[in-house]
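Record 1 of the preview.
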Amino acid sequence: MPKTIMVVDDSASLRQVVGIALKGAGYDVVEARDGLDALSKLTGQKINLVVCDVNMPNMDGITFVKEIKQLPNYKFTPVIMLTTESQEAKKKEGQAAGAKAWVVKPFKPEVLLGAVQKLVLP
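->
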């Protein structure tokens, strides 16, 4: 049974690039435009991992990570932040919220897939 990964980014082209890389590696992908859209799609189904941007309209990635950690079904779902942000302060804020990894854009698909494979839950 393939693992399901949610990709949360306000850029449709970035969601597409990440989706192609993940699908190519055998994962199912659920896409969301921002944190609010992502929360509305978390309806109890198994999500093995989330790849999330930091800077998005409506709800930014760090707020989204804090929100997902409050949901019993998703409290232990690992989150990879995929972002243009590279400052230590932002990384620490992301880690404090519960993000497990930080990948800076532009990224190499194999780097992202390596992080996904390390973190994806059984």
